[in-house]
Amino acid sequence: MQRRSLIRSLPPLALLAGSGVLLAGCGGGGGGGSPAPAPVPPSPPAPTVRTFAYVANYESADVSIYQVEADGTLSPGETAVAGAGAASIAIHPSARFAYVANSEEDNVSTYTVDAVSGMLKPGTPFAAGHRTSKIRIHPSGRFAYVISADDNTFQVCSIASDTGALEGIETVLVGAGGRANDIALDVSGRALYVARSDNRISCYEVEDTGNLGAPTTVNAGFAPQALAIAPSGHFLYTANADGTVSRHAIDAVTREPGPPVFEADFDSSWSIAIDPLGRFAFVATLDLEGYGVWAFTIDPGTGALGSPIRTDSPDGILSMAVTPSGRFVYATNEAGTVSTFEVNEDTGALALMAGSTAAGTSPGGISIVNVAE
To answer: Is residue 19 assigned to a domain?
Structure first.
């Protein structure tokens, strides 16, 4: 944070005629004047902020790193080694650490983030449950939550503030008959939501220690695949396996989601992303027209989604992320590429930018973050 200095008005300066000497305005007699004010130290320069995109590549077991340029293009950087089955990636709120869930090694790779290059420096992996699939970070940066799909569990971990290392706190069993497909955290950090394969969403209260209280469960769409929360914290959205998209109002006191309101119905939907400014929602689908991305406006009062606008996708989209500015959407594709879409600031409609950027083999999760040097 830049320090703001209070600069006092200086006394007027009088020029001594013929001498070229500047004199401070006089006080009383006797030649004594007001002392010159102490010099004001200059404010420190503003930090350089760069935007980076990170893609976890399942089959090549690595992370593709890109710098996001002002025009939305991706400049490839170095590649970081991950574990087998690198399925998803999460960035710490401080942008100092990164984490990759490795589905075929049952662990989480941990990294520190270089603020200049965006490069990831490996740390000590964290052993997780069977088929580690996703990791989500608490808004405070103190805790992480890791899904182990085949165990029907997820783990609660603490995060070391100096190294970013993970340490297990507790293992939570998802209710009988369903496994965790996705996890989302309330913007206040007070609640955690789990999308379950048995057509329900569980809501847990998050304690100060990171531990979770007993869950409440609400009905959802069919086998919800992905969760997204509006930046206002008022609404939770799901992309469901039957192609529907549903909205749940979040109670302002309990933070529990209400019953689903179905906003759209496609042949298939599996990825949803929300504009960080809360204006638009984006859903990746497969329908009779092929692969596409639908853009919706979001009513700020009700959370209702407006009429969708479709943009063709060059291939099957696996995951999406929106830049912090809200100007661009990036999607990982089955073909091993990343597509870039520009967002219309009025309607949310996406325009596919020319060309795709190469990623690793079978790219999956993608995360985008601003990093201050």
So the answer is: no
Strand partners, 292: 285, 312
pLDDT in tens, 2-40: 333 333 333 433 333 333 333 333 344 444 566 777 788
CB 243 within 8 A of CB 259: no
Q: Which long-range contacts (CB under 8 A, 24 or more apart) does 243-246 make?
A: 243/267, 243/268, 243/269, 243/285, 243/287, 244/269, 245/221, 245/269, 245/272, 245/281, 245/283, 245/305, 246/220, 246/221
Q: What is the DSSP letter of 234?
A: S
Task: Give the DSSP H/E element, type plus range, for residue 183.
Answer: strand 180-185
Q: How far apart are CA 245 and CA 265, in angstroms?
A: 6
- What is the number of structural domains in the chain? 1
Distances (CA, A) of 222 to 147, 171, 198, 244, 341: 20, 26, 8, 8, 29
Domain that holds residue 160: 50-372
Q: Summarize pLDDT for 341-350 with one digit per residue, the tens.
A: 999 999 999 9
CATH number at residue 204: 2.130.10.10
Tokens of 92: 């710490």
